[in-house]
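User: Could you go from structure to sequence for me? I need the amino acid at each position, not a summary. Structure tokens:
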């Protein structure tokens, strides 16, 4: 195709709109420009081609035979473009928004808010994939991941959703009257940990301690960890946001807090997002901001 000799796209669009409506004013309205702009583009197209496309001798503009010939071509061309664009835009519209997240985040933060999303956006279906595993964000797969960390992961787009530090908590019934606990002391207590994670042993190792083999460690789904901690069944690593009310009410004791600014991030691929994904991500941000 000889791209350099093709007329400007703006002129072809103006001509196609006129050919469709057979009226300068209506063509301008269709393209959201003035009728004068349409007239200018039509004259520019004729000048470029060196062909008279419109008969201006009467009260109204009509296409010449050359104009009719070009009109059939541009209408076919723009029609094919419109059909292809429509296919791409609507492809996957019926596919649910696929979200990867930890079970603890789903249970403690997202699930209580989901009824509001369904009320506001009944036409958007969601698939929640609770897993601590990192996932690849590929077209046709996971659309959004919600992950905890510093947000500096390579090859993806990440945006802070909820800034909250990691804390070590336990129920007063497990701790007894003792108020000071070193990492080595905590290593001798039973720990509860989300299945598929090593947060407990990792935290202890970072603080120069190792879990006592006789203390016991229980791995269970993330949505059950906090229930077990509140019942005095063990110590756990979690984020402060999930247990803030428990700490204030005295149901849990905060034993250590991480001195950093990490948090939960919305993680998406560095590719264009479907409309439904944009809607869900925007809703997440509004929820985090309390809007």
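Assistant: Here is the amino acid at each position, in order:
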């Amino acid at each position: 195709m000889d791209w350099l000799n093709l007329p400007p796209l703006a002129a072809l669009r103006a001509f196609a709109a006129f050919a469709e409506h057979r009226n300068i004013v209506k063509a301008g309205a269709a393209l959201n420009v003035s009728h004068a702009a349409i007239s200018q583009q039509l004259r520019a197209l004729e000048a470029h081609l060196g062909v008279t496309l419109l008969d201006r001798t009467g009260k109204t503009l009509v296409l010449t035979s050359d104009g009719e010939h070009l009109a059939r071509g541009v209408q076919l061309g723009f029609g094919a473009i419109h059909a292809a664009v429509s296919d791409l835009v609507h492809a996957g519209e019926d596919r649910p928004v696929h979200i990867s997240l930890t079970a603890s985040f789903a249970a403690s933060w997202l699930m209580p808010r989901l009824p509001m999303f369904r009320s506001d956006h009944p036409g958007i279906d969601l698939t929640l994939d609770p897993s601590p595993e990192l996932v690849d964000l590929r077209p046709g797969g996971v659309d959004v991941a919600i992950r905890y960390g510093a947000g500096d992961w390579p090859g993806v787009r990440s945006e802070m959703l909820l800034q909250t530090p990691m804390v070590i908590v336990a129920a007063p019934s497990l701790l007894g009257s003792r108020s000071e606990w070193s990492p080595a002391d905590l290593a001798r207590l039973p720990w509860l940990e989300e299945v598929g994670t090593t947060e407990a042993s990792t935290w202890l190792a970072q603080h120069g301690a190792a879990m006592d083999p006789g203390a016991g460690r229980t791995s269970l789904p993330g949505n059950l960890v906090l229930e077990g901690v509140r019942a005095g069944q063990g110590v756990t690593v979690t984020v402060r946001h999930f247990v803030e009310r428990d700490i204030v009410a005295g149901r849990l004791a905060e034993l250590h807090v991480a001195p950093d600014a990490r948090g939960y991030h919305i993680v998406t691929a560095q590719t264009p997002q479907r409309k439904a994904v944009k809607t869900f991500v925007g809703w997440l941000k509004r929820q985090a901001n309390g809007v």
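One structural detail worth keeping in mind: The chain has twelve helices and twelve strands.
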